[in-house]
Amino acid sequence: MRAESPGPQHEWLDGDAGPVVRPYTLTGGRVRPSVGLDLVAFVLARRGADPVAHPRLHPEHRRLVELARRPVPVAELAVELDLAVGVVRVLVGDLLARGLVSVYEPAGTAFLPDDNILKAVVNGLRAL
């Protein structure tokens, strides 16, 4: 018995669809990073970080280390790799666990204006 001739596979995809399952394979099905990472947290490769010494890393991990040779925010890494931010957070968490990168969270808001100041601003705007 002969099988059908090979025809176009995945007719439900077009050329612009891109990878469908790949982000989940990159993270091993994980959807949460090992550490919480803010979108504006800066990632910096540690001095002497060599991703080649870690054979289980994906090419995307290696690319992240290369991009992080200078401080770069998590959101920008997602844009550079054309991956979802959630995926990049998981990958950065992997690199952090292996000691290949450092993460610098933005300083918290140390000063929040007093409610009286905000009310004065609103009243001043209304007076205009």
UniProtKB/TrEMBL annotation:
One Pfam family, short name: DUF742
Superkingdom of this protein's organism: Bacteria
Name recorded for this polypeptide: DUF742 domain-containing protein
Source organism of the structure: Micromonospora carbonacea
InterPro entries per UniProt: DUF742
